[in-house]
Write a structure and sequence with these properties.
single chain; two-stranded parallel sheet; alpha+beta; C8orf32 fold; elongated; 6 helices
């Protein structure tokens, strides 16, 4: 085998390995990292210390729609560069955020008030929202938009092609993509 042919063979193998890594391995690593990130967030939101601390902010039980209003009274949405927090106390203190901060705070407040609630993440997109269990059914709640029970809004209004939507709840991850797509 000539040196030139050997070079191109080795070069081809290296390119194949790099492409395989970038196309197959990296997305799986990124997916696992994102899953772990949101599982950790939910673990924190489910801790007694977090719930008790948030409970102290309220003089009575709020329903899930009042908690949505409470969230909007304390947070301002911004597209400007901001500090990103995953702790509900820091989010309240900072007072501004985007979908992740609105959703984390809303889910934390719902859990504090006894609602079974979970974070919903568009894994390959850029949005986070919530679901709250009411009368044994999961109801879509978008804390950023203050919209309830409008799961197709992302497809219809935002023209998103949702590839993978995951629900994170108390150590569990569930694929809920089908609930947010009009075409099954």
């Amino acid at each position: 085998m000539s040196r030139r042919r050997l070079f191109f063979t080795i070069y081809g193998i290296i390119v194949f390995i790099l492409v395989f890594f970038l196309i197959i391995v990296m997305p799986k690593i990124e997916l696992e990292m994102r899953k772990n990130q949101y599982l950790d967030i939910m673990k924190n939101l489910n801790q007694a210390e977090t719930r008790n601390g948030l409970r102290a902010l309220f003089d009575r039980n709020y329903n899930y729609t009042e908690l949505l209003t409470w969230t909007h009274e304390r947070l301002s949405y911004t597209n400007e560069p901001i500090e990103r927090y995953k702790d509900p106390f820091k989010i309240i203190e900072y007072g501004k955020g985007r979908c992740q901060e609105f959703s984390i705070l809303y889910v934390a407040l719902c859990l504090t008030h006894g609602y079974q609630t979970r974070l919903i993440v568009d894994i390959y997109g850029d949005h986070v929202w919530a679901e709250t269990k009411l009368e044994n059914n999961w109801v879509h709640v978008d804390p950023t938009e203050s919209r309830i029970n409008d799961p197709y809004m992302y497809e219809r209004d935002w023209h998103k092609d949702l590839k993978l939507v995951l629900a994170f709840e108390d150590g569990k991850v569930k694929d809920v993509t089908i609930n947010y797509r009009t075409r099954k």
